[in-house]
Amino acid sequence: MNEQTKEVFISYSTKDTEIAFALLETFESYGLDCWIAPRNIPKGAQWAEEIDKAIQNARVFVVIVSSHSVESRQVPKEIALAVSSCESIFPFR
């Protein structure tokens, strides 16, 4: 699996960063290979492009559903891309 190909992509509003990284830590403690911004975005890379590639290469898409993610402009775009490219989509509330 290359750096871009991960089993799980975690989508979240930056206002939910603490929750997202706690979820990431839990998933990885079970041996799941996860992708999360900004950790997996190479320095100098275009964020939107890296996020799109990561979603397209992920098997599972997990979205943290909160009042912040509902108001986000980016999270709905990520969900739309995941619908067409990920095997499974799981909301986490």
Summed up:
44% of the residues lie in helices and 17% in strands.
Tell me the overall shape: globular
| Helical percentage | 40-55%
How are the strands of the biggest sheet laid out side by side? Answer: 2-1-3-4
Q: Low-confidence parts, pLDDT < 50 over ≥5 residues?
A: none
Note the gap between the termini.
29 Å
Q: Please provide the count of β strands.
A: 4
Instruction: Give me the Rg, rounded.
Output: 12 Å
Beta-strand content: 15-25%
Q: Output the number of helix runs.
A: 4
Order of helices and strands: EHEHEHHE
Question: Could you give the topology of this structure?
Answer:
Layout: E1 8-11, H1 17-29, E2 34-35, H2 47-57, E3 60-64, H3 67-71, H4 74-85, E4 88-92
Parallel strand pairs: 1-2, 1-3, 3-4
Helix pairs in contact: 2-4
